[in-house]
Design brief:
Number of helices: 6
Shape: elongated
Distance between the termini: 33 Å
Strand content: 15-25%
Low-confidence stretches: none
Order of helices and strands: EHEEEHEHEHEHEEH
Strand order of the largest sheet: 2-1-6-5-7
Radius of gyration: 22 Å
Bound molecules: adenine
Helix content: 25-40%
């Protein structure tokens, strides 16, 4: 999978894609991430990409030309399955949406900023709009990172068996069960007996019951 990210703040992405699973996904050849600076596609000598809103009002608006120039240049080299815009009024990112996106070939993510982008970009150039939650971030960069991370770890081959995505919370609309490691007894705080029993079927059953109970308690909305 290739993920191209268009942003005004490329430096924000440096650490995120060079650590942990996102890094391994790239090293193993499952993922290629390219960060593109929108300013490089500006038409004027000041490299500006935004202008006042028609009709007045507060805030600058990202203009259509730099975005269209950037997307046209990228699309000459690659076909995208989705061109995503990060916005608080987009479709909510869920595990299901991450699963769906992980099965795609190539994604482009345009990070939103300032007061917004010219609506014609959303109408004509964007194929999907995604929100990562009901709150407003100062830019779409963090949202793009969240989307890329949640998708990349689901690309077949990225996780090894031990980290299998199948046991993740939300994967089957259940919260993951609690996990424990050594010591089995820390100053009287004990690990549940069943996990020490070596009885695989009982452990499996216990984990399922815990998942169900946790989901009922913490996220009953998932059981609907
Ligand atoms: N940009 C600003 N807030 C956002 C959000 N909640 N999700 C995605 N993009 C955003």
């Amino acid at each position: 999978m290739q993920i191209d990210i268009i942003t005004l703040f490329p430096a924000m992405f440096e650490g995120v894609f060079n650590e942990s699973i996102l890094k391994r996904a790239q090293t193993k050849g499952h993922l290629q991430v390219n960060i593109h600076n929108l300013r490089d596609y500006s038409l004027d000598k000041h490299k500006s990409v935004d202008d006042y809103a028609f009709g007045g009002g507060a805030g600058m608006v990202i203009q259509i030309e730099p975005v269209a120039n950037c997307l046209n240049a990228l699309k000459e080299k690659i076909n995208y399955d989705e061109i995503i815009y990060t916005a608080p009024d987009g479709e909510m990112l869920t595990q299901q949406l991450a699963n769906d996106l992980s099965l795609k070939g190539n994604l482009c993510i345009l990070c939103g900023h300032y007061k917004g982008i010219d609506e014609r970009i959303r109408e004509h150039l964007i194929t999907k709009e995604i929100s990562i939650g009901n709150y407003v971030l100062s830019g779409g960069e963090l949202a793009a990172m969240v989307i890329a991370d949640s998708v990349a770890r689901l690309i077949p081959g990225v996780l090894n068996d031990e980290q299998s995505a199948l046991s993740d919370s939300f994967q089957d609309n259940l919260i993951a069960p609690p996990v424990y490691s050594r010591p089995a007894d820390y100053n009287g705080w004990k690990v549940p007996e069943v996990l020490l029993s070596g009885h695989e079927a009982k452990i499996e059953q216990w984990r399922y019951e815990q998942s169900l109970e946790r989901t009922k308690q913490r996220r009953p909305d998932l059981l609907k």
